Amino acid sequence: MTFELSRDHEEFRQSVRAFAQAEIAPHAARWDREHHFPVDVVQKMGAFGLFGITAPEAYGGADGDFTSLCIAIEELGRVDQSLGITLQAGVGLGINPILTYGTEAQKERFLPDLVAGRTLAGFGLTEPGAGSDAGATRTRAELTADGGEWVVNGAKQFITNSGSAITSVVTVTARTGTREDGRPEISAIMLPAGTPGFIAEPAYDKLGWHASDTHPLTFVDAHVPADHLLGERGRGYAQFLATLDDGRVAISALATGCIQACLEMALTYAGERESFGAPIGRKQGVAFQIADLQVMLDASRMLTYRAAAMKDADAPAAAFKQAAAVAKLYSTESAVTATRIATQVFGGYGFMEEYPVARFYRDAKVLEIGEGTSEVQRMLIARGLGLPVE
């Protein structure tokens, strides 16, 4: 049995690749060097339709499938991981929760601009003391005495698309009470940008993803209307866990783009660089490493698009969760290995920032961390196999 993308999917890939080569590739090194978030290009991505791939036509989207979104993320990630994660987070963590759990009024208020790429949205889950253990959330949201407003206090960290000039809203998980079993009640609250008491702290100085927008957030008596609750009260944590399953496949697509870039760079360099009177690609020590890159690429792409196809086919939730975790674990760890191999092929030049392989090397590591660490993926896979792992 073979698995191949449709002709429409392949044509879409070529159109996104052409966009990425024209609008992103020539500038990616400078954006990385200057730690510059290119708002104008992000909005061009919106005008090209990338943020609206999976959104309904009623909100300005293309009503396309999840596979198409993964293709777009992979192709952006092939030239710049920062812009790839901007799209992944903008749709997966920004648009999708509103689309899935929002009221019609919330959708009509936020989605048209988000889908068009005129604005961005973020989702705040991680906190200084609550990363993989998201149930340890300390941010609180309390209703005022008249029940008309939520008052949010707390902090979030590592939040993508949360403090840019075009950020319109960030949804955060917060404690809104205590359940009957004594565990915290976690709900999702939407905080529009500009809300008094909602503070996007200075952007992080990151190892990689220099051209993406990432901030810690602080909330000091931030008041929002009671109707800014996203979804059912007390279901915020469960909602976000479901959101993460999609996100893991999208991160797998981003990692696949990274591996593709490494293969292309290493292959080109191995054919041009000569040592001992011959191209280094003739040496088994180099050729075999590049062959390994092809194996990792094929496996990562197959796992990614298998999981995406399951999402599009409404596969059982447990089966999709397992496929998403497998894809994310394998492709992200492979991406880190691929950047190490590509850097080794380049030798000393791979250590120089003038070559893009150095940027991909720095960008890759976070793929093993965001949207659930490799350790979390192994835990999920083991549980899916029936092992009672804690």
From TrEMBL:
Its cofactor is FAD. Gene3D superfamilies: Acyl-CoA dehydrogenase/oxidase, N-terminal domain, Butyryl-CoA Dehydrogenase, subunit A, domain 2, Butyryl-CoA Dehydrogenase, subunit A, domain 3. Keywords: FAD, Flavoprotein, Oxidoreductase. SUPFAM superfamilies: Acyl-CoA dehydrogenase C-terminal domain-like, Acyl-CoA dehydrogenase NM domain-like. The keyword Transcription regulation does not apply. Signal peptide: none annotated. Residues 7-117 form the Acyl-CoA dehydrogenase/oxidase N-terminal domain. It holds the Pfam family Acyl-CoA_dh_N. Residues 234-385 form the Acyl-CoA dehydrogenase/oxidase C-terminal domain. Residues 123-221 form the Acyl-CoA oxidase/dehydrogenase middle domain. InterPro entries: Acyl-CoA_DH_CS, Acyl-CoA_Oxase/DH_mid-dom, Acyl-CoA_Oxase/DH_mid-dom_sf, AcylCo_DH-like_C, AcylCo_DH/oxidase_C, AcylCoA_DH/ox_N, AcylCoA_DH/ox_N_sf, AcylCoA_DH/oxidase_NM_dom_sf. Belongs to the acyl-CoA dehydrogenase family. This is Acyl-CoA dehydrogenase family protein.
